[in-house]
Write a structure and sequence with these properties.
The protein is mainly alpha-helical. Among the domains are: 171-254, no CATH class; 393-517, no CATH class. It is built from 20 helices and 5 strands. A 5-stranded mixed sheet has the order 2-1-3-5-4, with helices on one face.
């Protein structure tokens, strides 16, 4: 009962951390890169075109979002808010806020459920205390909490991969039933994010090392497993075969993008993910303890230990060689770092307690050590959720414009898409009163100029916003004070909350300054 109550409390903490401010930045639609792609594909699916025409990601997450969208549309029709499905489709095409909320909720649910699955993995390989401590570490892992807020595929794919790893470590004697079920879930993981297919490795390892089976039986299980994975993937994504040319082109483009980089050159993924994504995503104490624990578990119980470590190791190898190093690529590594950290903390606590002839104190030592290990990450989680609940700078700027220009305005903006403001006061027959244009040297002077600045883009004012041009304008709004140096961002990703150095920020988003024409 104590274990169940402890796990329930940890899951509650995990859920609060992930659902806090889940509606951040809405109705602005470009607050988190890639969410707009999920919204576009989901809208297309809702319109009954099941060919995604987009193969950068597999379609399972978008299919799930579409299925969740259907009862919402039925509810709006039943209550008379929208009279027809066509009207609903029109509405979400203009303002996909409902899709973004559904996708974010799916991701937050998957992130919370991942904590429970990691508990079961820890319990299987090391006992209840290991499971509880690993669950606590994941519940308060900053990178995992951060990305569980986003309506994209990473956290959900990692959740499915964790289920496969749990199945693998329970394969003391491999059976056909286990192989088929693991194959289905592996196929689902791969149909959510391609690189999650690497979670087939733990299952293959357990099949290959089952000495109770003959080589013929092991081979048969391996073939059956691979066949079920492939069939599940194709059933979920049949257009990977039907439209195989587009599918192959996308895979090639993904490989090239990973290898050649995105935005600023931050170095190879090996170093970036170790010293930035994980260093600040889980905290240095947890990272060090996690690596030690995974190695130690692999030595102490090779079959189960390697089954746990082989997937994060393969994922690290896959993302390490390229120059594109988004922090979210390290999400599949985070739960296993948490598990390894739990193994290390408990092992060291028992050694210390035995060394002073007080074995009963081991749990107390482990509890104190767990607080020390998780504190840096938990502190970042608190700072992140606190900041995310504050009105985003892009929302604040748009609200200022709609308040002071109720009849409409022309807003000049910079070229960076994720700095732009969103206005959703129009529809297909009544255009928005607010026209946004990209400022150029030849462009006419707009009513409002919106200038966005951030350490992510420290290039100052865009060339089109000259001092002479601004002399005809007056500054009327500033979303926040200038940032102090020292914040560490996910430098290739246009998400404006840093990985480290959050505490001094006033609000999320770039710093936006509004200028209005003096003659008005």
């Amino acid at each position: 009962m104590r274990t169940r109550l402890s796990l329930a409390a940890i899951l509650l903490v995990a859920a609060v951390a992930r659902f806090w401010a889940i509606d951040f930045c809405l109705p602005t639609l470009v607050c988190r890169p890639d969410e707009e792609a999920v919204a576009a594909v989901t809208t297309q699916f809702f319109a009954r075109d099941l060919n995604p025409h987009f193969f950068d990601w597999p379609p399972l997450f978008m299919y799930a979002a579409t299925l969740a969208l259907i009862p919402y549309a039925k509810y709006l029709k039943f209550t008379g808010v929208l009279r027809s499905e066509y009207r609903f489709l029109q509405a979400i095409s203009i303002d996909p806020t409902p899709i973004l909320m559904i996708a974010r909720v799916l991701s937050a649910l998957a992130g919370t459920a991942s904590v429970a699955v990691l508990y079961k993995i820890g319990e299987t390989i090391g006992g209840r205390l290991t499971g509880l401590m690993a669950a606590l570490f994941l519940a308060l892992s900053y990178l995992h909490v951060r990305d569980s807020h986003f309506g994209v595929t990473d956290v959900t794919a990692t959740f499915l991969a964790l289920i496969v790893v749990l199945m693998a470590v329970r394969m003391t004697v491999v059976t056909s039933r286990q192989v088929v079920i693991a194959g289905v879930v592996t196929g689902l993981a791969a149909a959510t994010k391609y690189n999650a297919a690497a979670v087939a490795l733990p299952v293959c390892w357990m099949i290959a090392t089952d000495r109770a089976l003959s080589w013929r039986a092991r081979s048969a299980h391996a073939v059956a497993f691979a066949s079920v994975v492939a069939m599940t993937f194709v059933l979920i994504d049949p257009y990977s075969v039907i439209d195989h040319e587009a599918f192959t082109r996308s895979l090639g483009a993904i490989s090239t993008h990973l290898a050649t980089g995105h935005g600023p050159d931050v170095g190879r993924g090996w170093w970036v993910h170790l010293t930035s994504s994980l260093r600040h995503g889980v905290g240095l104490p947890m990272l060090v303890c996690g690596i030690i624990g995974l190695v130690w578990q692999s030595i102490r119980t090779p079959r189960a230990g390697i089954a746990v470590a082989i997937f994060p190791l393969a994922s690290y190898v896959a993302i390490g060689g390229g120059l594109t190093a988004f922090s979210r690529y390290a999400i599949p590594l985070v739960p296993f770092v948490c598990l390894g950290a739990a193994v290390t903390v408990i092992a060291v606590s028992r050694i210390v307690a035995d060394g002073i002839a007080r074995p009963r104190w081991a749990t107390g030592f482990a509890s104190v050590a767990a607080i020390v290990v998780v504190f840096p990450s938990a502190r970042s989680v608190w700072q992140f959720d606190r900041l995310l609940a504050v009105e985003d700078s892009r929302v604040a700027a748009a609200n200022w414009i709609t308040t002071h220009y109720p009849d409409g305005a022309i807003i000049g903006e910079t070229e960076r898409r994720f700095n732009r403001l969103s206005f959703h006061d129009g529809d297909a027959t009544h255009p928005s009163r607010y026209q946004t244009i990209v400022l150029t040297a030849e462009e006419m002077d707009p009513d409002v100029i919106a200038v966005a600045e951030s350490p992510l883009h420290p290039d100052g004012l865009p060339p089109a916003v000259t001092g002479e041009r601004l002399s005809h304008y007056q500054k009327v709004f500033e979303s926040s004070a200038a940032e102090r140096p020292g914040s560490i961002y996910d430098w290739q990703d246009e998400f404006y909350i840093p990985l480290a150095g959050i505490d001094h920020l006033e609000r999320p988003g770039p710093r936006i300054t509004l200028y209005i024409r003096s003659a008005r």
